[in-house]
Automatic annotation (TrEMBL):
Comment, domains: Domain I is involved in oligomerization and binding regulators, domain II is flexibile and of varying length in different bacteria, domain III forms the AAA+ region, while domain IV binds dsDNA.
Oligomer and partners: Oligomerizes as a right-handed, spiral filament on DNA at oriC.
Segments for region (Domain I, interacts with DnaA modulators): 1-79
Stretches assigned to the Chromosomal replication initiator DnaA C-terminal domain: 350-419
Species, as recorded: Fulvimonas yonginensis
Compartments it resides in: Cytoplasm
Pfam families: Bac_DnaA, Bac_DnaA_C, DnaA_N
Family: Belongs to the DnaA family.
The protein's name: Chromosomal replication initiator protein DnaA
Annotated segments matching region Domain III, AAA+ region: 106-322
Annotated segments matching region Domain IV, binds dsDNA: 323-442
């Protein structure tokens, strides 16, 4: 790697989140010559993103490091051509040696990148899944998508598989829920067909396994998965996994497996924000041919924050009722039809609950959080709790101010603006914010 580029990355490490760095900048290859620095992106998508979001900053840092303006050229390609055989060719070579039964892929054709709505909460996950699909076995291996239920991990996983097959129809992509992997293994053990089992999993170009937290405590499965993983990894076959939390936090998952999972890229999929929830609803309604206005989408997006599956469930209920009664889906109709459901979601998030959870999260006493004390260790959690109250409840600014020890509504407004800005610029703050939302709405 060019020394200048390495130093530039080191500098940027302190400014960007690890995920941004790994998704966009680490895949770049650098070549330095008399005319400046040339950066090679693995695909046009990365190139566009780097140009749009990071190029200006890269040029500034390079200028600082070199002591004078430094030209940067960006293009798609590689600084040194790789010798590795593409995965599909490898599979074909394997097939020559031992003809395998016809391959039946099992991807859901509806789960594509086109039907996936992008927002801040899932942008990195989508980008990583796309890169993997465009460079199977080479971009990130394994790619691990983790996060709460119903947030689109399975969708992205299938989308990656579908894109791989679109780009290379001969590509063998096998999707399995973890339970299916366990079931297949038990069956193979029972019928003494372990060789066939091994062959089945190791002959694919990409193996997609959903919800690997299910492997916890299943030692034989983990052992077998570990060997499958190694075999695939070594021959550069792509592995994509999902998990309901960061795998290091999954109890009874073997340390050596956890360490393997860390070899590639792990990306968190966060709960979508309000705008993304509304956009997802409108997209789903369009897909299903259900006429839903923006107002209705906004109503549901405002009130149902838990996850996309719940949002979709609400939309399906609305569509079915509207169809049954032959009525249009107005906001009144939606309020009326989903009254119980909306009430359940509203109950979960109250200002006192937000205050309590935020105080616990930052390890401060509730009475201090609500006090007038202005020390930073209290002021920031207090601002976060105020901003969360605005985001997650229907209360007005004066009402929220009142609930925080009788503060003025302008103080609440200031808190909301400060936190929003910090979430955009500070990765640590964004993590805290998203984690709290997850706890409060999960
Ligand atoms: N950003 C998005 N755009 C469009 N649809 C989405 C998005 N996020 C989630 N969905 C939809 O929400 C539903 C649930 O998503 P999915 O099954 O992928 O969740 P998951 O994270 O894998 O959940 P689980 O861990 O429970 O399996 C799917 O119908 C999916 O299409």
């Amino acid at each position: 790697m060019s020394d200048l580029w390495r130093r530039c990355l080191e500098r940027l490490e302190s400014e960007l989140s690890a995920e941004e760095l790994h998704t966009w900048l680490m895949p770049l290859q650098a070549r330095e010559d008399a005319t400046g620095l040339q950066l090679f992106a693995p695909n046009p998508y990365t190139l566009d993103t780097v140009r749009e979001r990071y190029l200006a900053r890269i040029e500034t840092v390079l200028g600082q490091l070199a002591g004078q303006p430094h030209a940067v050229r960006l293009e798609v390609g590689s600084s040194a051509p790789r010798a590795a055989r593409p995965a599909a060719t490898k599979a074909a070579a394997g097939a020559e040696a031992a003809p395998a039964p016809a391959f039946a892929h099992n991807l859901d054709p509806h789960y594509t990148f086109e039907t996936f709505v992008e927002g801040k909460s899932n942008q990195l996950g989508k980008a990583a899944a796309m890169q993997v699909a465009m460079n199977p076995g080479r971009a990130y291996n394994p790619l691990l998508l983790y996060g709460g239920t119903g947030l689109g991990k399975t969708h992205l996983m299938h989308a990656a598989g579908n894109l791989m097959r679109e780009r290379n129809p001969g590509c063998k992509v096998l999707y399995l829920r973890s339970e299916q992997f366990v079931g297949a293994m038990i069956e193979a053990l029972r019928t003494k067909n372990m060789d066939q089992f091994k062959q089945r999993f190791r002959s694919v170009d990409a193996l997609l396994i959903d919800d690997i937290q299910f492997f916890a405590g299943k030692d034989t499965t983990q052992e077998e998965f570990f060997h499958t993983f190694n075999a695939l990894f070594e021959s550069k076959q792509q592995i994509i996994l999902t998990c309901d939390r960061y795998p290091k936090e999954v109890d009874k998952l073997e340390p050596r497996l956890k360490s393997r999972l860390g070899w590639g890229l792990s990306v968190a999929i966060e709960p979508p924000d309000f705008e993304t929830r509304a956009a997802i609803l409108l997209a789903k309604a369009h897909e299903k041919g259900v006429a839903v206005s923006e107002n209705v989408a906004m109503l549901l997006a405002k009130r149902i924050r838990s996850n996309v599956r719940d949002l979709e469930g609400a939309l399906n209920t609305l569509a079915a009722r509207a169809n049954f009664y032959g009525k249009p889906i107005t906001t009144d109709f939606a309020e009326e039809t989903l009254r119980d459901l909306l009430a359940t979601h509203a109950q979960a998030v109250t200002v006192p609950n937000i205050q309590k959870i935020t105080a616990e999260y930052f390890n401060v006493r509730l009475q201090d959080l609500l006090s007038k004390r202005r020390v930073r260790s209290l002021a920031r959690p207090r601002q976060i709790a105020m901003a969360l109250s605005k985001e997650l409840t229907e209360h007005s600014l004066p009402e929220i101010g009142e609930a925080f020890g009788g503060r003025d509504h302008t103080t609440v407004l200031h808190a909301c603006r400060t936190i929003k800005k910090l979430c955009e610029t500070d990765a640590r703050m964004r993590q805290d914010w998203e984690q709290l939302i997850r706890v409060l709405t999960g």
